[in-house]
Design goal:
Layout lengths: L3 H13 L2 H8 L3 H15 L4 E4 L2 E4 L1 H25 L7 E7 L4 H14 L3 E7 L13 E5 L8 E9 L1 E5 L1 H7 L12 E4 L7 H9 L5 E5 L2 H9 L5 E4 H7 L2 E2 L9 E8 L6 H10 L4
């Protein structure tokens, strides 16, 4: 690959956003970084970055270069591992991302991965922002709800979050239990207009009188915390509610439960580190 050094340099600039940070990461002079970027843009005949006072922002082409560079680097690493004959030794670091609300469900799986592959380091990035696998921001993502359908992703179902309508014991102690399905004398925790719309929130807004939703949040995780704190009746994962001794107020609707998906980009799906994790996850399906 004639221009691999230039591509690797540009990828570091895309990742860090400045010439100085990229040069430090690569251990080369800043002038070398600048020369590599200029040379690569000349070869491609297009700009990889927008220059501004704060540094460099990758263009769409620059983001694609970062994705390709990361995938190529990972595949070189896999080739090197095979050349050493270390087919059974899974080591290094792999970036895994999940929405905050999924972290309690995936931590036991990660623990099992670490027990099976003690030399493997997992960098868990939990956030309400969905990281882009196609740009190499993570090697494996956990998603919830409808099956992801990006054509470049490989998707494996790894579990189910069973949901129910609950009241915390502190809420029941203060206000008692509802005496009918109308719930008109009780307070609920529900979504505001900015919140995601899982199916149980749709049921809540369609079934429960709007005036009884006394606390609205913009995130599913915040609504869970509010219900656990006894601020109102609302939805919780069954495993969480059972641990806390919360009271189930009705039988769950099948549509409330949500699938958990393990998602990888097709360029990284065959990496030994990714396959090691997926091998453990498949046991939980």
């Amino acid at each position: 690959m004639d221009n691999w050094n230039e591509i690797r340099t540009a990828a570091q600039v895309a990742r860090y956003g400045t010439i100085s940070a990229a040069s430090a990461a690569l251990g080369v002079h800043r002038a070398t970084v600048t020369r590599h970027i200029d040379a690569l843009e000349g070869i491609l005949g297009a700009k990889l970055f927008q220059r501004h006072a704060r540094g460099f922002t990758p263009t769409e082409l620059g983001q694609e270069l970062l994705r390709i560079a990361d995938a190529t680097d990972a595949q070189f690493g896999e080739l090197h591992r095979l050349a050493r004959g270390a087919s059974d030794a899974i080591s290094g670091t792999v970036v895994v991302t999940a929405l905050d609300v999924l972290v309690p469900f995936i931590l036991p799986m990660i623990g099992e991965v670490q027990a099976t592959h003690p030399s493997l380091t997992i960098d868990l990035v939990s956030s309400d922002r969905v990281l882009k696998l196609e740009y190499g921001e993570a090697a494996l993502a956990f998603r919830i709800g409808h099956k992801p359908d990006h054509p470049d992703n490989v998707v494996v179902r790894v579990g189910t979050v069973e949901m129910g309508l609950y009241a915390a014991s502190s809420y029941v102690k203060r206000y008692g239990l509802p005496q009918s399905d109308s719930f008109s004398d009780h307070a609920f925790v529900g979504p505001n207009e900015a919140a995601p719309r899982p199916p149980y929130f749709d049921w809540l807004t369609e079934t429960i009188p709007e005036a009884t939703i006394k606390l609205r949040t913009n995130s599913v995780a915040s609504s869970f915390e509010a219900v656990k704190a006894g601020l109102g009746i609302g939805f919780l994962p069954k495993v969480t509610a059972d641990k806390m001794g919360c009271v189930a107020l009705r039988d769950p609707e099948p549509s409330w439960h949500e699938a958990i998906w393990g998602v990888t980009h097709m360029d990284l799906h065959r990496m030994s580190k990714v396959q090691a994790i997926l091998g453990v996850l498949r046991k939980h399906r």
